Amino acid sequence: MKIAVAGAGAFGTALAISLADADRDVTLVARSQAAADTIKIGQENPKLSGCPLPNSLKVCSDIARYEAADVILLAVPTQKLRTFLSDHSSALSGKYLVACCKGIGLKTLTGPTSIIAECVPDSTPAILTGPSFAFDIARGLPTALTLATSKGQDGEVLQNLLSTRALRVYRSEDTIGAELGGALKNVIAIGAGIAIGNGLGDSARSALMTRGFGEMRQLAEVLGAKPETLNGLSGFGDLALTCTSELSRNFCHGLAIGRGQDPDAKKTVEGISTAQAVVSLATKHDLDLPVCSVVDAICSGKLTPKEALTALLSRPLKEE
Ligand SMILES: NC(=O)c1ccc[n+]([C@@H]2O[C@H](COP(=O)([O-])OP(=O)(O)OC[C@H]3O[C@@H](n4cnc5c(N)ncnc54)[C@H](O)[C@@H]3O)[C@@H](O)[C@H]2O)c1
Ligand SMILES: O=P(O)(O)OC[C@H](O)CO
């Protein structure tokens, strides 16, 4: 089967390197010829410096590659997914479309697989998610991911295609649970970064992670996820990674805020828009999600970290 990777950023490039190294037929499709040329000339993506491309990996900006592919990995940020799919819907129809992004679309408050089903109705939507830094995948370090798609047979095809010796893909039919775990952990990771940057300590981080995980499960269940999915790689697994590593852009975004510094505005930090979406979903479904709400309030400048801490600590005491 032919694979095309849409979005030549850090994650798309890492997946393309790993799959090409495992002898899959892969083309990395960059957004512009200039971007493709930069990657080809340097034989590496500046967003993944130190990770050379294998010779077998094709790089281009030719969207005809989508038509020629059987499987397209969508490694564009979540808020860009709808436009990307709408712009290329005819080339993408009939294909396996595997979202590799972690977020909730602000227009419809739905996850990537719903956006795919809406924009390209005759495709097979799937989501690839779980604890994984692009650098780890590109270097061939052992990584375990979840591949979720609503039909088991399609899941098996994609699981076999995308697994390599180092990249172990587990299968699930719970697309909602898998994509919500990956999206929501980013919000909590920003909160964890704020706590550490603000000098609140590791115990506070652990409290935020645990209470935040409870909010992730609460929202996911209301939206139709299976609770056990949140306990797996795409939920708990990715929460643990992202809240504890300075390789995470979401964690580092929070770290900068907590330290009173300006976060790097050029980085892809999915948790900011996801926090906005969560607040809208909490209102819609009448849910109390205090950790996610204060993260959104801090990111949008409505609360300082100190005010957020006071708000959280002055909530009424309750049963766990
Ligand atoms: N970087 C990681 O370690 C990592 C790991 C797992 C998942 N992810 C997820 O992958 C997604 C992408 O993250 P990233 O790290 O690759 O970000 P990135 O900022 O490195 O790259 C995003 C890429 O998308 C491209 N893009 C944006 N709009 C496009 C469009 N309309 N058409 C074609 N290309 C377009 C950009 O040009 C850019 O190259 C995010 O949802 C992120 O959560 C990232
Ligand atoms: O750099 P982040 O914060 O987008 O995290 C990357 C991955 O989602 C970790 O699994």
Would you give an account of this structure?
The protein is of the alpha/beta class and 320 residues long. The protein has 2 domains: 3-173, NAD(P)-binding Rossmann-like Domain (Rossmann fold); 181-314, N-(1-d-carboxylethyl)-l-norvaline Dehydrogenase, domain 2, CATH 1.10.1040. It has 16 helices and 8 strands. It is globular and about 60 Å long. The N and C termini lie far apart (49 Å). The relative contact order is 0.11. The structure holds nicotinamide-adenine-dinucleotide (NAD) and SN-glycerol-3-phosphate (G3P). Pfam families: NAD_Gly3P_dh_C, NAD_Gly3P_dh_N. Catalyzes the reduction of the glycolytic intermediate dihydroxyacetone phosphate (DHAP) to sn-glycerol 3-phosphate (G3P), the key precursor for phospholipid synthesis. GO terms for molecular function: glycerol-3-phosphate dehydrogenase (NAD+) activity; glycerol-3-phosphate dehydrogenase (NADP+) activity; NAD binding.
CATH architecture of the largest domain: 3-Layer(aba) Sandwich
- Main beta sheet, described? 8 strands, mixed
Strand order of the largest sheet: 3-2-1-4-5-6-7-8
Roughly how much helix do the residues carry, as a percent range?
Answer: 40-55%
Unreliable residue runs? none
CATH evolutionary superfamily of the largest domain: NAD(P)-binding Rossmann-like Domain
Category by helix and strand content: alpha/beta
Provide a count of the helices.
Answer: 16
Order of helices and strands: EHEHEHEHHEHEHEHEHHHHHHHH
Protein name: Glycerol-3-phosphate dehydrogenase [NAD(P)+]
Domain Glycerol-3-phosphate dehydrogenase NAD-dependent N-terminal: 2-151
EC number: 1.1.1.94
Organism: Cognatiyoonia sediminum
